[in-house]
């Protein structure tokens, strides 16, 4: 019997040790969880900061791409319409040359001078055409407010309604942009 009691005591000790070990394991697992929570929080914080930085990077990259695209469009427009300022400054001189060519020569010197003025005029018009600047057709065409500026109305049986019957000042267009509309008289 003493041996049985001894075995029971040993078994009780083993159970007590197992309970102590399991309690210690539970405590150590809880301690590990408590220790991991601050690490998890730090990891989550760092991941949030990383996502924010990535989002900021993507937005900055998109802004830069948009900026580059706008600069390219502006550069193309400047190249396409580079002759506009020059043409705008030359138009009054062209108008004066056209008026000078309307005189009727009375002698040989005036005829030669008129021929020289016509040559200069043609050279200027050719140079403008090379840059993409052309005259707007007006007389006999239907009035278009995008290309014509009506300053008078008239009645002419030989023209239909809303047709340009006379041009007072020529209009010019640069590629697809109107530099100056034609000043015209429109039939009612």
Automatic annotation (TrEMBL):
<dbReference type="InterPro" id="IPR013805">
    <property type="entry name" value="GrpE_CC"/>
</dbReference>
<feature type="region of interest" description="Disordered">
    <location>
        <begin position="1"/>
        <end position="41"/>
    </location>
</feature>
<dbReference type="GO" id="GO:0051082">
    <property type="term" value="F:unfolded protein binding"/>
</dbReference>
<comment type="similarity">
    <text>Belongs to the GrpE family.</text>
</comment>
<dbReference type="GO" id="GO:0051087">
    <property type="term" value="F:protein-folding chaperone binding"/>
</dbReference>
<dbReference type="GO" id="GO:0042803">
    <property type="term" value="F:protein homodimerization activity"/>
</dbReference>
<feature type="coiled-coil region">
    <location>
        <begin position="43"/>
        <end position="70"/>
    </location>
</feature>
<feature type="compositionally biased region" description="Acidic residues">
    <location>
        <begin position="15"/>
        <end position="29"/>
    </location>
</feature>
<dbReference type="GO" id="GO:0006457">
    <property type="term" value="P:protein folding"/>
</dbReference>
<keyword id="KW-0963">Cytoplasm</keyword>
<keyword id="KW-0175">Coiled coil</keyword>
<feature type="compositionally biased region" description="Basic and acidic residues">
    <location>
        <begin position="30"/>
        <end position="41"/>
    </location>
</feature>
<dbReference type="InterPro" id="IPR000740">
    <property type="entry name" value="GrpE"/>
</dbReference>
<comment type="subunit">
    <text>Homodimer.</text>
</comment>
<dbReference type="GO" id="GO:0000774">
    <property type="term" value="F:adenyl-nucleotide exchange factor activity"/>
</dbReference>
<keyword id="KW-0346">Stress response</keyword>
<dbReference type="InterPro" id="IPR009012">
    <property type="entry name" value="GrpE_head"/>
</dbReference>
<comment type="function">
    <text>Participates actively in the response to hyperosmotic and heat shock by preventing the aggregation of stress-denatured proteins, in association with DnaK and GrpE. It is the nucleotide exchange factor for DnaK and may function as a thermosensor. Unfolded proteins bind initially to DnaJ; upon interaction with the DnaJ-bound protein, DnaK hydrolyzes its bound ATP, resulting in the formation of a stable complex. GrpE releases ADP from DnaK; ATP binding to DnaK triggers the release of the substrate protein, thus completing the reaction cycle.</text>
</comment>
<dbReference type="GO" id="GO:0005737">
    <property type="term" value="C:cytoplasm"/>
</dbReference>
<keyword id="KW-0143">Chaperone</keyword>
<protein>
    <recommendedName>
        <fullName>Protein GrpE</fullName>
    </recommendedName>
</protein>
<dbReference type="Pfam" id="PF01025">
    <property type="entry name" value="GrpE"/>
</dbReference>
């Amino acid at each position: 019997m003493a041996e049985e009691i001894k075995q029971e005591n040993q078994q009780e000790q083993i159970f007590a040790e197992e309970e102590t070990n399991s309690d210690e394991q539970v405590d150590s697992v809880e301690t590990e969880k408590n220790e991991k929570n601050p690490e998890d929080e730090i990891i989550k914080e760092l991941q949030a900061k990383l996502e924010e930085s990535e989002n900021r990077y993507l937005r900055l990259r998109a802004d830069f791409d948009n900026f580059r695209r706008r600069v390219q469009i502006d550069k193309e427009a400047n190249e396409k319409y580079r002759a506009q300022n020059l043409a705008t400054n030359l138009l009054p001189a062209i108008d004066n040359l056209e008026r000078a060519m309307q005189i009727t020569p009375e002698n040989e010197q005036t005829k030669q001078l008129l021929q020289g003025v016509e040559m200069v005029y043609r050279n200027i018009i050719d140079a403008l055409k090379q840059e993409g600047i052309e005259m707007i057709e007006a007389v006999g065409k239907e009035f278009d407010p995008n290309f014509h500026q009506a300053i008078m109305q008239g009645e002419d049986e030989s023209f239909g309604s809303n047709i340009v019957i006379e041009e007072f000042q020529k209009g010019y267009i640069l590629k697809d942009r109107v530099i100056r509309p034609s000043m015209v008289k429109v039939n009612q």
